[in-house]
Amino acid sequence: MLRTHNNGELRLAHVNQTVTLCGWVQRTRDKGGMIWIDLRDRYGITQLMLEEGKTPKEVLDLARTFGREFVISATGVVVERLSKNDKIATGDIEIRVSEISILNPAKLPPFLIEDDTDGGDDLRMKYRYLDLRRNPVRANLQLRHQVARFTRDYLDNQDFIEVETPVLIKSTPEGARDFVVPSRMNPGEFYALPQSPQTFKQLLMVSGFDRYYQIVKCFRDEDLRADRQPEFTQIDCEMSFIEQEDVLNMFEGLIRHLFTKVKGMDLGEVSRMTYAHAMKYYGSDKPDIRFDMKFVELKSEEVDLVSDKDFAVFDAANTVVGINAKGCAEYTRKQVDELTEFVKRPQIGAKGLIYFRYNNDGTLKSSVDKFYSEEDLKKWAEAFGAEKGDLILILPGDGDKVRKQLNELRLEMGNRLGLRDPKKYAAHWVIDFPLLEYGEEEDRWFAMHHPFTSPKPEDIQYLESGDLGKIRANAYDLVINGVEVGGGSIRIFQKDLQAKMFEVLGFSDEEAKHQFGFLMDAFEYGAPPHGGLAFGFDRLCSLFGGSDSIRDFIAFPKNNSGRDVMIDSPSTIDDKQLNELKIRTVV
Amino acid sequence: MLRTHNNGELRLAHVNQTVTLCGWVQRTRDKGGMIWIDLRDRYGITQLMLEEGKTPKEVLDLARTFGREFVISATGVVVERLSKNDKIATGDIEIRVSEISILNPAKLPPFLIEDDTDGGDDLRMKYRYLDLRRNPVRANLQLRHQVARFTRDYLDNQDFIEVETPVLIKSTPEGARDFVVPSRMNPGEFYALPQSPQTFKQLLMVSGFDRYYQIVKCFRDEDLRADRQPEFTQIDCEMSFIEQEDVLNMFEGLIRHLFTKVKGMDLGEVSRMTYAHAMKYYGSDKPDIRFDMKFVELKSEEVDLVSDKDFAVFDAANTVVGINAKGCAEYTRKQVDELTEFVKRPQIGAKGLIYFRYNNDGTLKSSVDKFYSEEDLKKWAEAFGAEKGDLILILPGDGDKVRKQLNELRLEMGNRLGLRDPKKYAAHWVIDFPLLEYGEEEDRWFAMHHPFTSPKPEDIQYLESGDLGKIRANAYDLVINGVEVGGGSIRIFQKDLQAKMFEVLGFSDEEAKHQFGFLMDAFEYGAPPHGGLAFGFDRLCSLFGGSDSIRDFIAFPKNNSGRDVMIDSPSTIDDKQLNELKIRTVV
């Protein structure tokens, strides 16, 4: 080893030992004949000390040539520091340097290697290897390593076996777009990269593996929104001879274990909520339940407190729904206007915002006083459980569409009221998802989870009767702080039901056989009841790290155009390669 | 859970408990009013027992419909068995069944699900999910899981951090052929799948990660020889501020740990051997040192015991080299002919085999008695340290080429003499590899390991002087039982040296910058001395499993044409996909 110790481990107990340290020059101070150097590595910072008259002159001279981020080696004696530095673990000691050398000089980095850097996003992506030197970024990847480790510990303990499934698989039409890989040995044919190891883990259940997991890279060629990556990592799991309840308990246990080990905290209750309930009361299939603020309906299939008062907007809407922003009655006109602007943003798309205040003096004042009497407003207030000081925010519109708009407003109010503390965690399962959803544009039904999800046995009748929208699935998502961190389902394990499912999704018999024949064949040779789920590992790590961005938890992420700007990829390839693969580009 | 216990856990202590078991019907015996069913799952086999007159008739009737591999559920009371079966862990008990049901029927499998199956390779590949049900195959994957787990334990303990590097990277011209992935968002451009995370792990060292590892999928689009897979798994490692000795010690420690944990045995000494020594005495850079049988030269640059005796074959050869097959003097003519045929096989390519016997009566008898006197043979015998009863096998030819031929013969003799016991392990490092090797066909120098390997400091002079063949690298392979299980090197970490290396490999400045500019840039911002290695994880597992075939240790392997015959991949893709990717196939 080029060093005897790392930069995080020396203490008073080492005083008088001669040590050799290696690392990066974080900072140099040269003052009054003394030179101090902060030497950094992954483990910490140790202070080197050189003194005119005591340190050999050539050592002092060399040290004065050091720039930031030079890689050096220094040998000296550990001495007690006069003024301790309690901000670093080695702050009780310093090294009185006798020998020093440059292992590699460094150009001045394009941004500061400090916890708070002056580098913009683009620069930090291009020089990702320098950004990774910064403590917060490195800490994120160390956290990621820990989460993986504790995940494996838990699952190993529960008799799960990690099995590697192939990366070069087969393209399938359902779901997101595949990345494909031309096969040189089979010209004209392509492999696809897996969007998930779904069919392989099901085959492992058919094989009797009983409990499988894998921390595995998956790939989706989708247009990248913020915080989506073309390659991402899943904790992928599957179990046999289980029911939904067993899966929920097993993986609630995993998450609880991770909170204990990674965050040192008890997660608390993990509640359950049906998809129908989530949509009705939160307008989202992943509600943030760190705060209440449930939706209240003024008009719906069940209630109507607003129609026939000559207010055309409410009359035209099939749904009028709102939230109670407790204690916000004194919001200024400007604040309310901001909220109106917020819901009118194109990505939310509401036409406008109606509100009323339950003033502290007991009066009720609305933005629609022209149409509704104080008597009307009192009934509304009652529905909202409103009290003096509350502000009620209301959106009119169309069913789930307006509910989704109100969900955005609810989350915004949660932010404004400080109800979404990233250090607090509230987890719950959303269950009973619909099996199918209708694609207006394509005019056909799609699997909401994927085509292998089992309908609830009591709803299978609707597959036959054609009431496809009524079918609920044994599917579930784990939601923490409004983020879907994982999801899964009980799977179909009978060939006939699987064939029926493909039929409903518009596959011809031939297509189904071509794409998934191997799975349906497998179901004929003794497939056990099984189910499982997958966690988004990048997202889980970002949640533990208290960040919204998965990119911060990926060592070498790609930008929104799918480019790695550091290595400049993707790139053109040689004609020789194209010829061997028997493909041409037509750009 | 659909079961109360698995099929491997019930013992006498459970007698009188009512249990529910699930699993696959391994075997049914119906005899004298009794039915016994062997119920199988991953954990073991439990015997179910049904009895006419005592078991409800409908249960008996149903049980009589079961075929092999039916998935069933059975409830009953645990009772002590009259005749114990000490071949299975649950052999002391059986289940007196009161309820039974079919969870999923099964067609008769195309081959027997037994330890010894009647299924041929092709059938077992097509129905891989059934082959995986067999104990030996499942045990291989469980072993693989264990090897991964113990590897992570060791490396975690040594402060290594597992970091995931990207799968969608950039195609590079050096090394094997890349698999490429067309980019839809960047038309005309391609990602490549990594042949190894080499440059990324080096960047992590530049980032100060200090100790990195990853158990990671890698990809090579090579023509598949037996036992090579287009996707394979590496244990990939890198360390900073180290010298070669530190890397060897660290990973000798890992292998030792794995032998202790996985095999329950001490690996013994891990010796060292230079590449030059390995080639001279074994004709291979991965000699199997479970047995000695070193090469002895009769003619080389250093010795000549054969020339000028009118034997044109030896006169024409620059190298005459042989091995002493101890105790084989009484090999029959037929046996010697077999060996001659062996070395003349096209894949070995020797012209013929010369031999002499040191007979038990003290006489020497050679296949070239016409040219050499007993006096000559005595000198040869002395060189070989031959004793009565030995058979000396000799090949003439050209330097390393004939040595490689003799290596094959040596291994064959090792097999014939039972010297290659798969239950014995001998590990050693081969060190001091040449940095470069000359490609006759391409008429240029190639990196023997890869372009990032550091020359030995004392040999850097030859880079300048042009004696490229003389340069030794700080590169090393770990060889166990003649199998290269891992290899690595100390890396170049200085920009100028790296640039020089690319120049020597025939890169123009522009090409070097285009392909590896990011790495050379990184070296300018403070790169530490570093090095590492990678183990072939599939091969390591097969070694622990005592098998020659990595395919047996991969859940879903591909065949020699790179096809997954189970899912029938690769396959054609839609024109829509091709259009989106802006590529055409030209088959």
Automatic annotation (TrEMBL), chains A, B:
Superkingdom: Bacteria
Subcellular localization, as worded in the UniProt entry: Cytoplasm
Any one GO BP annotation for this protein: aspartyl-tRNA aminoacylation
Entry keyword annotation includes Aminoacyl-tRNA synthetase: yes
CDD domains in the cross-refs: AspRS_core, EcAspRS_like_N
GO molecular function, one term: ATP binding
Positions annotated to bind ATP: R220, D221, E222, Q229, E484, G536, F537, D538, R539
UniProt keyword Secreted present: no
Chain sites annotated for binding L-aspartate: E174, R220, H449, R491
Substrates-to-products reaction catalysed: tRNA(Asp) + L-aspartate + ATP = L-aspartyl-tRNA(Asp) + AMP + diphosphate
Subunit and partners: Homodimer.
Function, in words: Catalyzes the attachment of L-aspartate to tRNA(Asp) in a two-step reaction: L-aspartate is first activated by ATP to form Asp-AMP and then transferred to the acceptor end of tRNA(Asp).
UniProt name for this protein: Aspartate--tRNA ligase
Biological source species: Arcicella aurantiaca
